[in-house]
Sequence to fold (730 residues):
Amino acid sequence: MTALALGPVPDVALSRINPVTQLAAIVVVTVVLLTSLDLVTPAVVLAAELCLLPAAGLRTPGAVWRRTWPLLVSAASVGVVNVLLGDDADPLDGLALVLRVLGLALPGVLLVSSTDPVRLADALTVHWRVPARFAYGALAALRLVPLLATEFEALRLARRTRGVEGGRNPVAHLRLFAGISFALLVGAVRRGSRLAMAMDARGFDSGVPRTNARGSTLQVRDAVFLAATVAVCAAAVATSVAVGAWHPLFGG
Amino acid sequence: MTSTSGARALPGAGSGGPVRIAARGLAVRHGSRRSWALTGVDLVVDPGERVLVTGASGSGKSTLLAAVAGLLDDEGAEITGELTVDGGSPAAARGRLGMLAQDPDSQLVMTRAGDDVAFGLENAGLPAELIWPQVDRALAAVGFPHGRDRATQALSGGEKQRLVLAGALARRPGLLLLDEPTSQLDADGAELVRTAVARTTTDRGTTVLVVDHDAGPWLPLVDRVVELVDGGLVEHGPGWRPTPRAAGLSLPPATDGPVLLTAEGAGFTYRGSPAPALRPTDATLTAGRVLAVTGPNGTGKSTLALLLAGLRGPTAGRVEASAELARGVRRGGTTPHLWRAGDLVTRIGTVFQNPEQQFLTGRLHDELALGPLRSGGHAATARATAEALLERLGLTAFADANPYTLSGGQKRRLSVATALATSPEVLVLDEPTFGQDAATWRELVALLAEQRAGGCAVAVVTHDADLVHVLADDEVRL
Fold:
């Protein structure tokens, strides 16, 4: 159960890069990968991303697998489906698609593995002027998510005490699941409004300009990180052009 | 201002001292209700005074609290009379308010303890360099035993409430409102919180209003006690003590019957968890006797209840029903957790700590008829059972009401009644008296004694020493 709990994320090497810098880098990578339809560009970008895995604390194959298995499974199925159903079914196109999906999603995995949610909210409000109501409200709500898993199990057992269970009937299972989900939603809304009241009582969003106790600073290394991201993307496109594989979204 | 006790050494954020509360002829009626929740309340609380507001459930305590906190205007309530906080309207004084409510999990915002205390100071616009010293002082003042970096999810309930208190006090509130802050804690956790409140308010730096139906434990740390009775206020003199809830209670005695359910070395470990939630434990449930399961938090009392109730299978040892109890089950033999739900409810009834989790319908009558129907009873019999139980619990007037709209005490009685509706021979209850006022407490005790006298085997998981004293025939201490 503790695996589900949302807590502070321990610092890793990549945590020294400000979350907004990482978000900016994600934008760069996304633009490049969405517009390049060839195999070489995503391959180069993905290779660079893989080099960052240890910096995000993902050092063993087991740790990488735990963080990325849903991504790997969905990328593989997207590739297979496209090859099977595409008009001109070229396995290389399928592979290019898989690499693009992975290359697009892996930066998100790196961000989540290396970034404490509180630091992300700090960075967004300090540097990008994201409203505190949104950033810290989402943060507080996120804290309650792990409670939902515990609550779901309690509601399932509570139904058994009333003589209600799925048994072997799939329709009954579906109805049971719907009922529990609804009860869960009602409970979440009520708990959420209590939380909002508690935040209110501590002066949240009361019109006073908010300060930030932890602060969030951008350093030289942030500029270097962003520049390196741009450089890697440029190198990827350049390599692709050089070997004659480049295939942009517009034109060609 | 001295700080030898560490009590009031929080310079900075707030302005002004403790506030004064004055109510004259205050009456409140909630939008959807016909009757008045408060009728002509006169109350003056001087700056720095510590006052306990007590009263039975439904007496208007929550309404008075919401009025003082300035929250009634948002709800469209009808208000007559006069109420001022700090000389002005309660809503205008909201910035001077510190609040500690019941559920710790819906009051914490951040993932680290220090960040959570800092949250309220950030909101006040305090410069960052002034925040951390103030956070450290607030944590020390409430006796928080961990560092700033402690993950909030790793705290016990009592520690969480202390942290919320530190977060409120760091803002130097002129008024501290405590809304039954210990009702969800065990005895040790509750004591931790009351000690922290006592330590931080002895210097009269803030006015304190405690709202709690359980007056006794607060008496040493408040200046005076007022009680709400049917929406009106009664002032109690010094030396007032609440009537012990067990006074004059006469209960039918235990009877002796056969053993119905036994746990032999039954333990439980969650998958992937290194430590067991419940160590191997023996327990015997006998017809006509009450077994109390006691012990500190975290020893697996509720887990043992789930095993006895046939809701989980033990991962060590076994839980076995007697041949008599298991007679006629369609599946699972003498192993309750393998039984079908329909077979389970007529043999083992379970009452959860939170009544709402067990409500499945939108009508009291349907709620009581559900169990009998699900276990294969006829519609007419189920209806008759439901009506008899409504009558027994004095809830006939609410037969068509939605269970969620009942008061806390009524919800508790209803959840016990739903378990009784299928006439189980074994009854398992998890903290049935938690947060209940004296009237509901007495009614529950009488109801359980009645079941015992009728030959039911009852298991009660509880922290409630009074309950153990008046009702328990056997005890398992974890």
Residues 187 and 413 of chain B are 23 Å apart (CA to CA). Chain B is about 30% helix and 20% strand. The first strand of chain B starts at residue 21 and ends at 29.
